[in-house]
Amino acid sequence: MEKGYYHVYSFGEDTPKLLTAEREFIVAMNILAYCSTIFNCRILVFIFMNSHFHLVLYGTEEECLAFGNKLMKMILHRINRNREQAYDFRDIAISADLIEDKEALMSIITYDVRNSIEAGFRLDPRFYRWSSAALYFAPEAADGKRLDQMSVRMRTSVLGINYDLPGGWTVDSDGIILPKHYVDYKEVESIFVSIKAYIAFMYMKKDRILELNKQCSKVNFQALSDMELAGVADAMAKRMTGRNVANMDVVSRISLAQKLKTSRGTGVNQLARVLELNPEMLRTLLA
Q: Are residues 179 and 280 in the same domain?
């Protein structure tokens, strides 16, 4: 399968507070670092927000999608340990969209970097800690403590993870593996060539931002088969009502249809089939 640049991102309406505490963000970044060692993909950009993440990866579509799914599964596995109501991975869609040309690549790189601003961050995106924004066209970050200078117990305590990682990698005082070790920021710089071009794309027009927001919306996520959707629906129904779909009344099924439409972008006809509802009635109610 041919390699290319892919925009990999998550969407989950049921996870508005996927990452909340500082420690959760740190562990998520360190899991990303680990994923970079087990997949044959290059990371050009990453950003973690409260409810989702964005990546720009270079690899095959299969590799990039597997990377995004593995990253989300590992993050959810860790945070579910501390949550009263655990998140279900099946409620979160992961998309890997091929980036067709250089201009689109430059737009998406800067779109991801400035995602913190769109979410309300009030400083320069380079100061947003949970992204690779500080790496581009900037002095190289100072090294911290090497992982091979730490005992296994200390690494686990500091990083929040216990995976096999390169001993020469370094970690800062907050326990974050420095992104310079696993992000190909030099390639990003070569794509833009100059800081002028990078800044020009950073301040893209509002209509371009709206277009990219639309491209990253739920409607682009990979469709589920009826059988797969039925499994997702049953899991969601049990969390909502303690019952499976077959034992829900019509009103509850309509409420479930709304949640599935919002979180998965599922079409009305498929929702009607899976939830055994009248499609015309459902289309009117969900309009």
A: no
Where does a domain end: 219, 234, 253? 219
Choose the final residue of a domain: 219, 251, 274. 219
Confidence of residue 13 (pLDDT cuts 50, 70, 90): low
Percentage of the chain beyond pLDDT 70 is: 90
- How large is the average pLDDT for residues 15-31? 88
Kindly report whether the global pTM for this prediction surpasses the value 0.85: no
**134 and 37 within one domain:** yes
Q: 3-state DSSP call for residue 183?
A: strand
Query: 209-256, pLDDT tens digit by residue?
Result: 767 776 676 555 556 678 878 888 888 888 778 888 999 999 999 988
| Same domain membership, residue 56 and residue 40 | yes
Could you tell me which residue, 103 or 11, shows the higher pLDDT?
103
The partner residues of 8 in beta bridges, in order of sequence, read: 55, 96
**Six-digit token pair at 152?**
């296994």
Asked if residue 6 lies in contact with residue 45, where contact means CB atoms within 8 angstroms, the answer is no
Length of the chain (residues): 287
Neighbours of 105 (CB within 10 A): 21
Tokens of 8: 């990999």
* Residues 110 and 49 placed together within one structural domain of the fold: yes
Which residues have C-beta within 8 Å of that of residue 163, sequence separation ≥ 6?
34
Residue 161: give the domain boundaries. 4-219
HEC string for 187-256: HHHHHHCCHHHHHHHHCCCHHHHHHHHHHCCHHHCCCCCHHHHHHHHHHHHHHHHCCCHHHCCHHHHHHH
